[in-house]
Each structure stands twice: as structure tokens, then as C-alpha cells.
Amino acid sequence: MDENSGAERRAYRLTRRRFLAVSSAAAALAACAPAATPGPSGASVAPTATPGPPLKIGMLLPFTKVYAELGNSMQRATKLYLKQKGDALANRPVTVIYEDEANDPVVGAQKTQKFIDSDRVDLMMGIVATPIAYAVRNAIDAAKLIFIETNAGGNALTRTTTDCKPSCKSKYIFRSSFSSYQISYPIGEYFATQKGVKEVFTFVADYGFGNESAADFTSGFTKGGGKITGSLKAPLGSADFLPFVTQLKGQQTKDIYSFFSGTDAINYIKAWTQLGMTASGYKMNGAGFLTEQDVLKEVGDQANGATTSLFWAVTLDNAENKAFVDAYQKEYSLLPDVFAVQAWDGMQAVDLALQAVKGDTSNKDAFIAALENVKFKSPRGDFEFDKETHNPIQDIYIREVKVQSGQAVNTIVGKVARVTDPGK
Amino acid sequence: MTPETAVVQALNGISFGALLFILAAGLSLVFGMMDVVNLAHGAFYMLGAYIALTIVQRTGQFWLALVLAPLLIGALGLVIEPLLLRRLRGRHLDQVLLTIGVSLVIADLIGLTWGREIRSIPFPAGLDHAITIVGGDYPVYRLFVIAFGAALAVVLAVVHRRTRVGALIRAGVDDAPMLAALGVDIDRLFAITFAVGAALAGLAGVIAAPVFGIYPGMDVDYLIYSLVVVVVGGLGTLSGAVAGSALIGPVDTFGKVLFPQFALALIFAVMALVLLMRPTGLLGRIRIAR
Predict the structure, then answer these.
(1) Which residue of chain B comes nearest to A276, CA vs CA?
(2) What is the SS3 assignment for A393?
(3) What is the pTM of this model?
């Protein structure tokens, strides 16, 4: 009996050891892969003068879990930008090291530390989720690593806060996307002063970003003289939205302000349609992600009439946007989304700042000053960083979903010019 | 909450519970028969939704997807059981670990095949409108989910209690080695049970796809729900899955609208409470360790 189980254990250990050998070989292979991918395209392009030292960019994006497609989109924009520039910025050949943050602050912190300690990158970009940006803020600040945030919109990342809770601005951190204030406060003020809306009911995702959006909308709307009649929150990742929309229908205020994105937005809009909310006179409004392309292509005309605010729309009529959308479509046969624009502008800002310092990133203060001074025409319109906060100063567009030749698109119906984050 | 709203919310809760039942029935069946908590159940559910996506995109036929997707996933289960699980029979923890591996592989293959975008399919024609209930519109599809869940429960109960296969499964749950000794091909029975469990997960995926969307990570979200349901209801019994989903569906729905701050913890609090009072779950049986 005893002998038997010993033999079994021995066999078991052997298989486990074999398993370890195989898995570590696989891990070694996987570790080689990222270094191998960016290589070949760089070799084919010959820069004019003798190229400067290589520039290493650490790009931390989600490639797995629920935000994977956002990471893919930003990676596509980054690759397209570099391709157009012959894989060199300010005469320095560029290597981008992509890492997966897996929508997990712990993983994000580990990968950031890897960028700092072992890759020794010249600058870092990326991060989709605000909790991850907050989690790595201190490490980046302590390492004096220049970081361009290309998505996470949590207000605190570019603000002065008491005791730096939950996060605070750093001279090394810039943001090429937006702060949640920017996509929530202006539409609140606009509703009260321009659209003549008297009462709004808020319904947002119950997590940091959704709550921030509701609070900023509320302060903009009430400052303009409007009244918030009530609020409802859905826990993040609530699959079933019918119970919430049932509650919305059970109250009298017709204008609803929402913050949802991705799957939540799709499920919300479908439940909205199923309960016949629009027919009963209710109006859907929200921060722009509620009706971005990823959502619209799945819900189509069900979002018809929804009014949202964002700093960009694929239909935005300017030369830079046309060129960007065309180039992106030509390369990937699909429409760019707002995340692609954010990464694109991050690359553009880095490119211009690098040119201003002639490719020299060794003097951090000079490079930061150069970034603070970049001004350019982005697909979203005029782009510059607020020198105080390092958050962009940008126009916010009020958009309404309309069905044009069978396709649901965001059309621009209004604009709030040069919105900057208050910084505290 | 007005009485009308309360009625509608009760319907919402029951329809969510019905969906949870379809999902949890397969998990419970496999556990009862094979003593394996199949953690790949969520991945089968996800695969069902993605196969439905392709079928609906190609043919526009939701009903075809409802038949075909479970069959395909059942066939996959028929391959996985003899190929992988059978080798570890009797080593329950190793089998559970193996199912985690299977779920990771399936989820990643889905990502490679279908991409990692969020997707959705429309409600099937005929069930995409609303009817008037207690003075308001109510979506017909949700009523269909309730009816489907109830019908499935009846069918499973009849198969379980009145057919030869059901008798074999009940005997297998009680004492598999004895059943084998009586000359029943236990390998085949296990493979079929596992395949039926997987097919039920795929079926739930198809039913849920129009309502809850199709996205990376859906496997884990719903695996957790189905685990809560079978633990609350009682592991390994069909009536347990019915009781668990009938409790968890409405609790989750009312919890979300009445105490939103507490909503995620609520179903786990209920689970803890049930386990304190009845460690085997609402309708669970005491299992004799062998």
C-alpha cells in the first residue's frame, strides 16, 4: 500500500518536472518574441544622416482581458505613426517595447518596474485603466521617467490633491487623452445654458471613473442653473441592465445622463430599447464613450438621438482628421477610434518635443520643457498641454447620434472651446 | 419602488434566474456524476456565445445557432473527456486544475479566432418586441428565457427520473465503481455526461448572447455566478440547481437596484448564510467520502 503510493508519487513528480521543463522552455520562447517583432521593419529604412542612439519607448497596454481591443487600437496607431516616420524620431531609431498590463494594477506596477530597471526605457507611454495609472504614479515620479498617459482619465493624475490621494500630478507625467472633468463638466454646463434642459437624472457605473463623471456633470449642470433629480448606480460589469432601466422608467425625469463604456454601454442601450424608453419620451445622454464606434457598430440605430460629449468624432471635419482616418483605414481596413487618436497624439507630442531638443533626452528638464511647449494640429483640433497640469487643453464637442445612409454616426451639434482641467 | 416596478423587477429577477439555471445545470450534472468541478464551464459558455455570433452573422438564423452551437460544444466535450480528464480519474484536484488549463486555452483560442472586440447579436425575429404587462412594456425575449429555462428543467427532470440514461446517471452519482462492476461502460457514461454538461453551457451562451453581449472575460464572470448557484442550491443535484438559481436570480436583481453599493457582495453574503445553516446547500445531499 505504502510502496504503491510512493511509486505513484514518484511518477507524479516526474511528470511535474517534465511539465516544468516544457513550460519554462515555452516561457523563454515567449520572452524572446517581443524583442523579435519590431526588428525587421527598422532595418529597411535608412535615415539620412548617421542615426543617433536608439530611442526605447516602453508601451504598457492591455492586450488581454476586457480592454484588450483598446490596447490593440493604440498599438495600431503607434505602429502607423512610426511607419510614417521611417521608424525614427528626431533621427533616433525607435524601439517600442510592448507589455501587457492585463487590466491589473499589480501587473501594471511590475511591468513599469521592468521598464525602469531592466529595459531602461527613455520614456514610457500607455495605460488604459485609471487604477493602474494611479498605482504606478509614484514609481514613475521617483524614477524621473517621462510618461505619456494615453488613456486613463482619472482627474487626480494631473491635479494637486491633499497628500497625493488617490494620486496627484507629477512633473514627469503628461496626458494625451483627457481628464474625466473634460468630458463631463462642459456637457453639464452646455445642457443647462445652451440646450435649456431643466432637470437631469444621473445613472453611472459605480466605480471611480463613473462617479467622477457624475460629480463633474452635476457641478457643471447645477452651476448653469439645472437641477439633478436623482441618481442611480450600476456596479461595474453588471451584465443585466434591465433592472436598472426599469428603475429609470419608474421615475419622471426624462433626461438621463450616463457614464458607461464597452459591453456595459451595449447592454444598457439594448435594455433601453427593449423597454421602449425613447418612445416614452426619455432621452439618453452621456460622456462620449457611451456611443463610441465599438458600441455603435453593435447597437446601430438603437442609439439614435443619444447626445454625448467627447474631444473627437470620426466625422470631425478637419484636414488632419481626414488624413489620419484615411491613413489608418488604408493600413488596417477599419475605422480608427478615439483610443487610436489618443495614442497618435501622444506619439506626435513626443516626436515634436524630441525634434525641439534635437533628439537629446538626457536632459530631462529640457525635454519636459519641450513637451510643455508643443503645439500642433491633431485629428481632434488644436492640441497643447496645459503647462500647469500637463493635461491637454482641447475643444469638447457635443455630438448627437444620427443615422446617415443606414449607418449610425456621431454628428457634431455643438462645441465648447478650449476646455482645460481646473487642476485641483 | 412602486408595485408596478416591483412586479417588473420580479420578472427581471426570474428571467435572470432562468438563465443562471440553464448555465448551472450542466455544471451541477458534471459535478454530481464525476465529482469534478468543471472550471472550464465558463469557457464552454463563452464558446457557445461566439459560435452563435458566427452563425447569426453568416445566416441570420438565431434558432440554427441555438441547435448547432450546443451540438458542436457537446462534441468538443466528447473529445476532451477521454483525451484529458480520463487520464486523471480519481485525482479530483488535478482534474480541477486541468479544467482551468482547458478554460485558458479555449479563451485564448477564442481571442485568436474572433478577436478581442466586444460583440453583440440582435434578438431573434419574433422575440425582439415588447408586450404590455402591468401597464408597461416588457421585452418578450425575457419571457422566452423564463419559459425556456422552465421547459429545460422539466425535460432534464424527466430524463433524470424516468429514462434508462437517467437511471444510469443516478446510479453513477451514488456509486460509480459499483456501476462499472455491474457491467456498465462507465467510460462512455462519463464522456456523455461531460459532453451534455458542456452542451448545456454552450446553450446558455447562445441564450445569453443577445442580452449580455459577447466579450473577452465573460467566461469568468458567469463561471462565478454558476458556481454560486450550485453551491447555494446543493452540489450535484438538478433540484439544487433549480433552487439555487431561483434564489440567486431575484436576490441579485433586487440587490442591484435596492442596495447598489452592496450588490456584488450580496449574493456571496447569501451564499455564506445558506452554507452556515445548511452546509450541503438548500437541497444538497450529504456525500459520503470514498
Answers:
(1) B137
(2) strand
(3) 0.86
